[in-house]
Design brief:
heterodimer, A: about 120 residues, mainly beta, 7-stranded mixed β-sheet, 4-stranded antiparallel β-sheet, 11 strands, B: about 110 residues, 6-stranded mixed β-sheet
Amino acid sequence: DTGVSQDPRHKITKRGQNVTFRCDPISEHNRLYWYRQTLGQGPEFLTYFQNEAQLEKSRLLSDRFSAERPKGSFSTLEIQRTEQGDSAMYLCASSLGGGTSGRDEQFFGPGTRLTVL
Amino acid sequence: TQLLEQSPQFLSIQEGENLTVYCNSSSVFSSLQWYRQEPGEGPVLLVTVVTGGEVKKLKRLTFQFGDARKDSSLHITAAQPGDTGLYLCAGRNTGGGNKLTFGTGTQLKVEL
C-alpha cells in the first residue's frame, strides 16, 4: 500500500505529557498537511509543508504545537504539555503540488486518535 | 475566514432512495473536493471539481460545481447501505494558499 500512513493510530496520554505523531506521505508528493478533527466536525487546517519548508500555520497551532519535516519526506507533529482540549483526530494529508490545473488533490492518512485524560 | 455550510447535517434513508447533499459558501473557491469518511478513518477523496458549472459522475454519484464556484452538490441515485458515511466538501481558496476549508459534514445512513 503506497498511501499516506500515520503512526500511532491511537494514543492515550495524561494531561501535561508530551506526544509526537508521525506521518509518511505518498512517496512522490512534495506537499504535506496536518489537520485536526473533533467529533462531529470537519477537519481544520493546522499547518502545511512544501518539501522541508513550513509555509503556513493556522492560529489553531498554539506554541505547544510544533511540526517538522526535516528532509522533505516524513513529518512529525509534537504537542507539549497536552491538555484535555487537545483530544481529537490528527490527520495528515499529502499532495503533488506544482501543477497548473488547480487540482492539487490531497490524500489523507488514517489519522491518529489522541485522548488526553 | 471562508466557511462552507453543508446541508442536511444528518440524513437517514431507505435503500433505493435518491438524495442530494448541498455545500454552500459566500466565498469563491478555486477548486472543491468531496470526501467520504468512515468512523475512525481518514477522509477518502471522491472527486475534485475545478471549473464553474462542472458536472462529474462517479457511478451512482453526481457532483456539480456551481457556476460562480461558491457552491456544490452531491446527488446519489438509488442509495445502498455501502454509501453510509460522513460526506465532507472541502474548498481550496483562491488566494493562492493550499489549505482546504472543510464543511461540517453530512452524516448519511442508508438502511435496508
